[in-house]
Amino acid sequence: MKGTIIKVYRNYGIVKAEDKGKQVEFMFYIFPDMVNNGEYKTSKKVSFDVAKTEVRNSKVSIAYNIKPLPDSEVIQFHIQDEKQKDYPYGVYKDFFQVDNNKSLLEGLIAEDEHFKEFTLKWVLFLEKKIRQMLVVLVEKYKIKRSSVYDILKKETKTDYNKIMRELGKTYKFRNEFNLLTIKRKNKNDDMNFEVLDAPLALYLGSTTLDKLHSIVKALCSSIFEDIDEKKDENVKFLKRTLEMFGDLSIIRNAAAHGRPLIPLILDDKYAPNELYDLSSVDPKFNSGTDVTQWRLFQPIRYVARQITKEGFAPTYFDGGLQNTGLYTSKYILSNPARRSFFSYLYILEFYFRFVDGNRKKEFVEDLHNFVPLGAYDNLDNYLLAKYPKENSVLKQAIKFTYPLWWDESFWIIVDNGILMDNQKKPS
Question: What is the SS3 assignment for 47?
Answer without folding.
Answer: strand
